[in-house]
Design brief:
This protein is of the alpha+beta class and about 100 residues long. The protein has 3 helices and 2 strands, in the order H-H-E-E-H.
């Protein structure tokens, strides 16, 4: 709790970051992920928003093989603007 509420997020301009989602008005789900086209449309429709990025709630699981070694991995796909919006650098493969 302390890290979540008392310390700032480790991102540039963290106080300006927000998370958004949709609601299912039919009542089937309390929170619905936005589709990539919906995220893009929101960015176009809201010129006052400096940047908009998206990511799914669930990670993808798989494995990476290097020679005979197989390593389990978890990955979360993000939109192309994700790291820029956070004020961070994208990870460099192999680094």
């Amino acid at each position: 709790m302390r890290a979540l509420f008392l310390q700032p997020l480790p991102f540039a301009r963290a106080s300006e970051l927000v998370v958004g989602w949709a609601q299912d008005h039919r009542g089937a789900k309390p929170v619905v992920q936005l589709s990539y086209p919906a995220v893009r449309q929101m960015a176009r429709d809201n010129p006052a928003v400096a940047g908009l990025a998206g990511f799914p709630r669930a990670a993808m699981e798989g494995s990476v093989r290097h020679g005979t070694v197989v390593v389990p991995v978890r990955a979360v796909p993000v939109t192309g603007e994700f790291f820029e919006v956070l004020g961070a650098s994208a990870p460099t493969p192999g680094a």
